[in-house]
Amino acid sequence: FGEPKHWDDVAAVDSLTYTRVEIKRIIEKAFEIASTRNKKVTSVDKANVLASSKLWRKIAEEVASRHPDITLEHLYVDAAAMLMIQRPTTFDVIVTENLFGDILSDEASVITGSLGMLPSASHAENGPSLYEPIHGSAPDIANQNIANPMSMISSVSMMLRQSFSLFKEADAIDAATARTMQAGF
Predict the structure, then answer these.
(1) Sequence spans of domains, the chain
(2) Beta-carbon neighbour count of residue 90 at 10 Å?
């Protein structure tokens, strides 16, 4: 959403702007979440091409130095997209900028079979977090009795885990959703 931004029939310009404060806040949150999981953060960027990604990678290394118990790996976005399909279980927490994250999260839905199966979280720096299905409200299927509630239920599990540290309760929800899917629903 950076400036300048322009388009006409001859040329187009989009700006990708991130500040040190923004990047550090996002990456710190990724490390915080990873500390409650498998202790691995994959930072996805395009540092071989984009200046913003070079800064992103530098700050990721700085944050990682303060979290020696958590492994940090870097992947270019194209390699991350490929590996997400080939070996999805090798990832734990993926942290990236907005455009790459939007694309990769939609790609990840292929693994589960539907965008409607994935939870999401938006974490405020100082304030509440927002948990919702990754697809949003899906108005295109309203009133058709076809919406799958699994992503909303999984978003509640994520909320219990990430905002309230209620791990047993989140695990119970995850186990129930797994049993439901295994039963064919």
Answers:
(1) 14-112, 114-185
(2) 11
- What does the alpha-carbon distance between residue 163 and residue 87 come to, in Å, rounded to a whole number? 28
Is residue 176 within 8 Å of 154, Cβ to Cβ?
no
- 45-60 burial, b at 16+ Cβ within 10 Å, e below that, comes to bbbeeeebbebbbebb
Burial class of 160 by CB neighbour count within 10 A (0 to 12, 13 to 18, 19+): buried
Please give the class, per CATH, of domain 14-112.
alpha beta
Tens of pLDDT along the chain (185 residues)?
677 888 899 999 888 889 999 999 999 999 999 999 999 999 999 999 999 999 999 999 999 999 999 999 999 999 999 999 999 999 999 999 989 998 998 888 888 777 778 888 888 777 788 998 877 677 888 889 887 888 899 999 999 998 999 999 999 999 999 999 899 87
The reported pTM is 0.82
Cis omega (within 30 of 0) for bond into 88: no
Structure tokens at 110: 């292929």
* Cα dist from 96 to 22, 56, 103, 171, whole Å: 12, 8, 11, 26
Residue 43 β-bridge partners: 74, 95
C-alpha 107/C-alpha 140 separation (Å) is 20
